[in-house]
């Protein structure tokens, strides 16, 4: 207790050592300060932690300071509790004043560093508690509206702090008996934040087309927009006194949102971003963007008709972590009885194919054309992989619907889209029994009759390949195991003993316990395999691999509580919590 303040004072300027030293506060038995008459050492330690908060600007140190002071505010008693709470209140007031002063300085033309570091401090404080202030939200909105040329990182921290204040205001409203003043105040802040977010949805898309680096700000705009839509989901408030706060985004804004998300997904991992901050990379990388978009679907915040296929069309395009997120999303959607999985899969295939056709029309980058066509094939194989074993019997109608919609799409504007047959439908045809092939073959050939294929033989090659595949599939005369008629099997040698016949003892008397266990396990070995296999087929695909918990934690919470109407306060994981 005596040496701890000395250590803090000695290493206060050292960014590498001060954070773990501050974390030690949460390992101490704080009641010993009173028992051992060491109150002054406790106060000295708290004072030094507050000093460290205002001396440093890195995430680890700031977060450690807030956690340590909050720990003291919950674990201390009597005078020490009062002292810790007063220090936290003083820290809060001083920080708000610093942010307001820094905003005025930037508006006057000064450097933005002081504003940036104090916005980071405010962000860490708001992750743990609401910050009482007078007009700070309006000050942040004003500078964001008027100074468009500020550093992108400053803009991103202005937006995240505005969002956290909105979230805390919503959390503070009494749902049963809300006051008109609180609702009007929150509604005003909601409109102001949406105004800024929608402005950046448009502007940042254009910036990226011009080659300007906006990765950090774009990611923040995507995640905060998704969080705002989830937070104010219209159906959550439709039957409450807060119905005026409910919000349903128009399709136009959902499309702009996804356009910006898509640009973030397409940024190469090797691309360096001059405004990227490694401290907050987990909040601003492509995984954070994909999770934000997926949460909108799992929470039924926006229509699945547009956003669902757009997300799934990127299933195999951006590496293992993104694939894992989308795989979890599909598994969750398949559990929802209202989800049209066949339409989802077909639309996803159509959109990835249309991206390939767009590259083909441009005709400039052959490598990009080949890559996009390969992505279409890979996506078809991956989606068809959901129909294996017993699942393809149970969901055969889905497979047929995907093929029927795909054939219809391929024969629009002949013969330009015929390659869709070969690129996207062949894997699904292989999941059908031979008895379903003749109808598909007849339909395909009927659509091509009375057409002279010799006018453009290369364009009709995918059609001929697809027809040949159908004929080969039908010729193999494959029948699913469940459809086979049981026929007696001729066996050579001694006939097998019936499975259900008990094993006979060579000697008279009762079986021993060892013999019973052998007999039981033998019968289980013969009779349980089929059931286990069917159970395995019925398992969600997500259970066939070990997911990365750090990547899917927020998605799991939404998939389990997507329809919940409970409002929650912001948590320590930030805007992606």
From TrEMBL:
Residues 478-488 have a biased composition (Basic and acidic residues). GO terms for molecular function: chromatin binding. Residues 478-577 are annotated as: Disordered. One of its GO terms (cellular component) is cohesin complex. GO terms for biological process: sister chromatid cohesion. Residues 1-168 form the Cohesin subunit SCC3/SA HEAT-repeats domain. It comes from the Eukaryota. Residues 557-577 have a biased composition (Polar residues). PANTHER family: LD34181P-RELATED, STROMAL ANTIGEN. This is Cohesin subunit SCC3/SA HEAT-repeats domain-containing protein.
């Amino acid at each position: 207790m005596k040496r701890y303040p000395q250590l803090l004072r000695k290493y206060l300027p050292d960014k590498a050592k001060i954070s773990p030293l501050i974390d030690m506060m949460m390992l101490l038995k704080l009641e010993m300060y009173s028992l051992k008459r060491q109150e002054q050492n406790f106060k000295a330690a708290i004072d030094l932690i507050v000093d460290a908060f205002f001396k440093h600007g890195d995430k680890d140190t700031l977060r450690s300071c807030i956690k340590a002071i909050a720990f003291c505010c919950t674990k201390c008693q009597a005078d020490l509790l009062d002292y810790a709470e007063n220090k936290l209140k003083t820290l809060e007031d001083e920080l708000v004043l610093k942010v307001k002063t820094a905003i005025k300085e930037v508006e006057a033309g000064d450097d933005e560093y002081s504003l940036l570091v104090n916005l980071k401090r405010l962000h860490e404080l708001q992750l743990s508690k609401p910050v009482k202030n007078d007009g700070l939200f309006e000050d942040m909105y004003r500078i964001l509206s008027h100074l468009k040329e500020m550093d992108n990182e400053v803009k991103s921290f202005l937006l995240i702090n505005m969002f956290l204040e909105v979230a805390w205001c919503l959390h503070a409203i009494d749902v049963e008996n809300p006051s008109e003043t609180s609702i009007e105040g929150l509604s005003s802040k909601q409109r102001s934040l949406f105004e800024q977010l929608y402005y950046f949805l448009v502007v940042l898309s254009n910036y990226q087309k011009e080659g300007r680096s906006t990765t950090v700000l774009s990611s923040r705009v995507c995640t905060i927009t998704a969080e705002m839509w989830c937070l104010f989901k219209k159906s959550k408030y439709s039957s409450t006194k807060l119905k005026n706060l409910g919000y349903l985004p128009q399709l136009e804004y959902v499309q702009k949102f996804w356009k910006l998300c898509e640009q973030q997904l397409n940024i190469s991992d090797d691309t360096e971003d001059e405004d990227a901050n490694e401290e907050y990379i987990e909040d601003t990388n492509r995984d954070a963007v994909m999770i934000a978009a997926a949460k909108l679907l799992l929470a039924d915040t926006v229509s699945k008709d547009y956003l669902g296929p757009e997300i799934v069309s990127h299933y195999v395009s951006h590496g293992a972590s993104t694939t894992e997120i989308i795989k979890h999303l599909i598994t969750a959607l398949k559990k929802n009885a209202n989800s049209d999985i066949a339409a989802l899969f077909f639309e996803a295939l159509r959109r990835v194919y249309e991206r390939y056709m767009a590259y083909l029309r441009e005709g400039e980058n052959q490598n990009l054309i080949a890559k996009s066509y390969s992505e279409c094939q890979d996506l078809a194989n991956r989606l068809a992989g959901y129909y294996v074993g017993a699942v393809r019997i149970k969901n055969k109608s889905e497979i047929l619907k995907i093929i029927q919609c795909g054939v219809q799409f391929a024969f629009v504007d002949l013969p330009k889209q015929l390659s869709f047959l070969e690129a996207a439908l062949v894997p699904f045809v292989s999941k059908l029994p031979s008895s379903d092939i003749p109808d598909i073959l007849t339909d395909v050939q009927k659509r091509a009759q009375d057409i002279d294929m010799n006018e453009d033989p290369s364009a009709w090659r995918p059609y001929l390949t697809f027809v040949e595949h159908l004929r080969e599939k039908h010729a193999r005369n494959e029948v699913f195991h469940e459809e086979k008629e049981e026929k007696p099997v001729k066996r050579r040698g001694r006939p097998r003993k019936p499975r259900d016949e008990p094993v006979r003892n060579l000697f008279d008397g009762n079986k021993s316990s060892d013999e019973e266990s052998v007999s039981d396990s033998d019968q289980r070995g013969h009779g349980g395999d089929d059931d286990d296999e069917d159970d395995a087929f019925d398992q969600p695909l997500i259970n066939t691999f070990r997911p990365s918990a750090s990547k899917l934690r927020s998605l799991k919470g939404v998939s389990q509580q997507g329809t919940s109407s409970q409002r929650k306060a912001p948590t320590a994981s930030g805007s992606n919590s």
